Amino acid sequence: MKQTGLVFFPAFDWAISPTHPEREERLLYTRDQLFEEGIMDLPQIREYKSRMADKKDIARVHFCVPDIDAQITEAHLVSAGSSLVIADAVINKEVDNGFALVRPPGHHAMTVAHGNRGFCNINNEAIMIEYLRKKYGLRKIAIVDTDVHHGDGTQEIFWHDPDILFISFHQDGRTLYPGTGFVEELGGPLAHGTTINVPLPPRTTDAGIHYVLDHLVLPILDEFQPELVVNSAGQDNHYSDPLANMSFSAQGYAVLNKKLAPDIAVLEGGYSVETALPYVNLGIIMAMAGIPRLNLRNLPATWNISKNW
Amino acid sequence: MLIGIDVGGTFTDGVLLDGKAIAATVKYPTDNDDLKTTLLNVLDKLLAGIDNQDINRVVLSTTLVTNMLATDSVARTALLLLPGPGLPLDTYLLFADTYFLKGSIDFRGRKIETIDSKEVEEAVADIHSQGINKIAIVGKFSNRNSELEKVVRKIVLDKFPSMDVAIGSETAGQLNFLRRIVTTYYSIMTKEAWDSFVREIETALLQRGITAEVDVLKADGGTMPLHLSQSKPCETVFSGPAASTMGAVALVMNPRNSVVVDIGGTTSDISLLIEGQPLYASKGASIKGHYTHINAFSVCSLALGGDSPVTINQDVVSVGSRRRGSAACFGGELPTVIDVFNHKHRLGIGNEAQSTAKLTWIVQNTGLDIETLCTEVENIVINRLQESIQNMFQEWENEPAYRVWEVVHGRKFNVQEIIGIGAATGAIIPVLARKMGVDCIIPEYASVANALGACVARPTLALKVHIDTENGYFVLDQEGISGPIAAGQNMQMQDAQNLARRHLIEMAKVRGMTDYADEAEVYLQEQFNVIRGWNTAGKIFDIGVQISPGLIKEYQGVSR
Q1: CA of residue B243 relative to chain centroid, distance
Q2: Has residue B453 been placed in a domain?
Q3: Which residues of A carry out catalysis?
Q4: pTM tops 0.90
Q5: Could you tell me which of B404, B535, B408 has the C-alpha nearest to residue A103?
Q6: Considering the domain boundaries, does residue B552 fall inside one?
């Protein structure tokens, strides 16, 4: 049977500040939904325990100012380490694919880390990729950033690297943080075309995102022939997200993950903690584990708390 | 005087404890078709020559429910499920006679979709027409709001007042719909048979003039009063291994990290004590391959025991898993594991010469000599035990954790001693302990540890409260209890804990276990600020309190 590895690390004792979107409550209802569904009891799912990353794993990617300890908390080490747990499990073929459902997120963190950027201090995906290349000798890896915000940190880290294909689709930078990710951002001179950006107008729906996926992302992936596909899995394209303005649905995310079939997904943003996250996370897990999504919730847009996260 | 009786698959053990002395022990073959008679026979043997009025407490550990479920000798039961959105419905299609209904609740206890009464009526009519009279009604998130389950129950009972009905929220209120389905289903399925067993036992005890408190042992190593067990027959499954583990606790009485190895004729059960406290199975007891919400000790069972036969096939030594008779030293036909240890370590069990003779007989015409054979068998046995023990440590250490400090601090099981109990333990455990480099304890009375464990186990009670101050309610995971939280109340962690404790004390009173209520400890405390916009709209608390497994106050150890 196909098995999906899962590290669930909701960091129930960590927040940027008490009322910050990146707070203890963020994955509480996701916990409720996943545990009530009995996800961890399913034969298709193998749950792993999180672990701390080594400082050396961080140093492989980042130049921290003035040093690593100044830039991270223990929560960051566990979040990054959890991605490594999934990476090991997938590469060692203990599971077919895996999802690091972890916080804090990382895709805005750049090579030089000197403070929190867009809720991120260190870049979980980049740390994982350099770990995989060092430990297992992988070469060509693709990252598809499905967060509503441009994955500027990941883009910057791999800007000059022709072996890493980075594709980000996101809400137009003129309307949303971080204000970058335009089509002409294509990578450095030796890696031109291995960075791809697709800014999308606010209120883009399932149809729009899937159009980009079908007609751009998947064909480019086919051509690039990566050894590993990573989904930098933000969930804030959801129509109920309080920080962004897109109109994507939980079903849309599930289908996206089915089509993309990432080897590894790592949670990024997504702050509609009640209306989106429980169902989007469930949808991603179901898609990765090959569970039909017939009964997955798709909230009516009229549901009264949908915009009132 | 106290009595403990543990019904096992092969033998039923009983002890009579008088102060610090074990006044009598009984070992009697189990008649799996008539457990009541087996129990009463053992009881009568224990009671021989004493005044029944002197008995203060009787604790029974029985395999009745386990056997019923294992042999499918149970009543046909229907399931009415309210799955709501989420995983596809076939995930919940665990049993025959399952019906899916409209109506759903979300994680905050909000009603998302109402019941379609007509649909319920049709389903019940269909169930009734098939001659089924037991129904389990279970909804997803019914532990956060039991309204829909209760509406369905009312429709069922209005139409068919004689239906036996159980609802999920009152049976198993922890998160996990799958396990709630299984637990509720098995509970209502076995309830009638268990009730009649309880009545028979009560009558039989009255006839013998025993007016003492009668308790049954649960899978979590605690007891509950027999007369209150009717709604929870399933909690008695796997009480056997719990009895053995509690027996080890009672015989050793020290707060160390220990491995309890119970080696019987055909199986070995391994459990862990962490600072003297038995370790629970993280996913609950598993019945016929389904996880449940029944708290049970983490027990690893191996098909390997003292009577496991030793064979040689083309010079390859193996240890069989099926018992083919007793050990040669007790007159058996084939040499067994016991014979190997008996011969190798000169233990003088039974007729040691017989052990040696049978072992010599099977090495004949093979390329092996008897000493090689013994070494190989010993290695097989010890390695399998040691491997299982290591796996249990690892599983415990790798238990997922959801808080930073838990991951940062990790956990490591440093075993200090092995406690051997059960009939065949004396031969094998010392060798295992030597190999693992830890202390070895084989207590006197190790062979009736299970019955002693039942005898002196104290009652347990655990509950979790979920409090949602924004939505103004709390729910208990026990018996479907819920209530309002007054708006505007500035609830803090201490208030939440007090609420949990208050309910524990109340439930303890009903169960006649007030004596232990002050030993209740908080084992889980989580609080979350519910932030909407930039304001705190409320708090969510999850509090767990429990009276954990332990020994009754009057037990002061067993004197030699």
Answers
A1: 9
A2: no
A3: 108
A4: yes
A5: B404
A6: no
